[in-house]
Write a structure and sequence with these properties.
By secondary structure, the chain is an alpha+beta fold. It has 1 helix and 2 strands. The chain is elongated, with a radius of gyration of 19 Å.
Length: about 60
Amino acid sequence: MELHTNPDGTTWMDWGNSSPEEFTSKVYSLLHVLLEDQNECKLKMTRNLEAEERRRNEKK
């Protein structure tokens, strides 16, 4: 499994000669990582918004 980047910045995945089971496993693993990253971004965003709100409240 390899991730490639095109000159225009888009990316594509080469899954190689994976069997259907390997392909499914790789897709699930990739989705799991993406969901973890998404959740981490949401947590950071929430913390930043909370900190910004606290700063605004302190100024009042």
